[in-house]
Design a protein that fits this description.
- Strands 1-2 form a two-stranded antiparallel sheet.
- Strand 1 and strand 2 form a beta hairpin.
- The radius of gyration is 18 Å and the shape is rod-shaped.
- By secondary structure, it is of the alpha+beta class.
- The protein has one domain.
């Protein structure tokens, strides 16, 4: 029973945190005065 509860907890945590982790993959561009684009992460982990 303990092993099942542990597996269930891990699956639940994975399902809850997956949408938040996906936001960390978003990238945006800003332009610095030299004119070269720089990638910055927009997501919060």
């Amino acid at each position: 029973m303990t092993k099942r509860a542990c597996v269930f907890s891990l699956i639940t945590l994975f399902m809850v945190f997956t949408p938040f982790a996906a936001h960390a993959d978003d990238w945006g561009k800003i332009t610095i005065p030299a004119g070269k684009p720089v990638k910055i992460g927009l997501g919060a982990m």
